[in-house]
Every structure is written in C-alpha cells, then in structure tokens.
C-alpha cells in the first residue's frame, strides 16, 4: 500500500504543478500594461523618483526600480522566475555599471505579486540579507491591500535608511543611474 500511496502522491504533485503553471500563465496573460499604469500612475512614478533621489542624497548606492506588469508568454512557458527576470534586467539596464559596484535593482513583477531586490557586490557585502527581505515584505504586504503607492514609498524609505546606515554618503558624487522608475 505504501507504493500505491506514493504513486498517488506523485500524480497529485504533478497535477498541482501543472495547475500552478496554468494559473501563473493566466495571471500573466490577463495582466496588461494598463494594469501597470493603474497600479503605478504618473503621480506614483514621480513620487518613487523623488524617494530614490532623496535617498541617494544620504547614501552612496544607486537605485533603479522597474515594474513589469507581466512576463512575455515565452518566458512563462520557459518557467522564468521573478528572480531570474530581475537578474536579466539588472544586466540589461547595466545596473552593475557603477563606480563602487553600488547598483541596486528593485524589480516588481505585478502579475506574480513579487518584489525582487538585486544588489551589486559592493552593496551585498555590507547590507545583511534580512534588510532585503524586510523591504520586499513591506511592499508585497501593501500590494496585497492594493496600496501600491504607499507601500513602494515605504519600502524605498526603509531601503534608504539601511543604505544610509551601512553605506553612507561620503562627499559629492555624481548620479550614475537614472532615478526615474521604468514601467515596462
């Protein structure tokens, strides 16, 4: 009976995996650019840009924020995770290309309700992992309530405080990455 139970469990796990993939594909196909603009209107994008700029006045890191309403169908079929996509965008937008290896990407996958933070090596050496998780949790908790504007600003402020503590400003430095958020 143990063999039958194990086989039934394997079938159930495969069915659950297929349903999860189908559910994810449906979420991405039904999340449009309009959904992104509705969650992140111009006023919110402007507030994000200001929050990033004010933070960069007190720390040496360079922050970029990218919102992607949904992945392309080919990426969903390939099983690309939010984390993998964040790494692709980190490279594509050259966030690693800063003087002190201080680039940080905040990636928001709207369809999957995921926030990923990718930090370059200069930052990841000094900021403990629990700070990243706390910022992501602040944002995703707010997203669950439909509070995109307030939760993103709160997450950026939380990130700025950690960066100011661990990677403080040490003199005038040029802005190396645009503070303007990107809505793909």
Task: Please characterize this protein's 3D structure.
This protein is an alpha/beta fold and 184 residues long. Helices cover 58% and strands 12% of the residues. Strands 3-2-1-4 form a 4-stranded mixed β-sheet, with helices on both faces. Helix 3 packs parallel to helix 8 and helix 7 runs antiparallel to helix 8. The mean pLDDT is 89.
SSE blueprint:
Blueprint: H1 2-30, H2 33-39, H3 42-56, E1 62-68, H4 73-77, H5 82-92, E2 103-109, E3 114-119, H6 121-124, H7 129-144, H8 148-166, E4 182-183
Parallel strand pairs: 1-2, 1-4
Antiparallel strand pairs: 2-3
Helix pairs in contact: 3-8, 7-8
Briefly characterize the structure:
By secondary structure, the chain is an alpha/beta fold.
